[in-house]
Amino acid sequence: MNYLKLSKEISYALRHSPSEYGLELDDNGSVNLEELLIALKKKEEFKFLEAEDLVKMIETSDKKRHEIVNNKIRALYGHSISTKIQKDAIEPPQYLYHGTARRFIQSIKENGLLPQDRQYVHLSIDIETAIQVGKRRDKKPVILTVKAKLAWENGVGFYKGNDKVWLSDAIKSEYIEFPES
Hints:
The chain is an alpha+beta fold. It has 2 domains: 73 residues, RNA 2'-phosphotransferase, Tpt1/KptA family, N-terminal domain (Arc Repressor Mutant, subunit A), CATH 1.10.10; 82 residues, ADP-ribosylation fold (Alpha-Beta Barrel), CATH 3.20.170. 30% of the residues lie in helices and 19% in strands. The longest helix is centred in the first third of the chain and has 14 residues.
């Protein structure tokens, strides 16, 4: 079983297009495990898929994109579907980081960090993860420091995505430290 390919397929189904798979997500983005298996087995490459494969996919993933709880599976972050996935706000660490392309810096200075085509702004717990994320759009990304604790104290909501990813609705530029150009 190609677990990376399976992870990407499930991410697409749960984050971006559940209706394409005949799935309906609940308020926290979960779907019954059996329903997902039935949907995926319709594809030739996944026709022998079992629940144990989903468990192994999650256990072996370095990005921890999914979780299974009470016989339901969900993507932890990255949703672009129109129905907002509900998350419980939680106090963040003092600082979080955001890796971005240099071409977006002026817009971020003017408008802050916005979710764009996702439901939440994605933030990293450490600089190394932010660099990895930023390199998706720029070979030399800019790493922004978000004063998360201060933003939280001023009413900005933060939500834990996984051990390395935090989420927020939006971050005003006043809570962002920009590196000197």
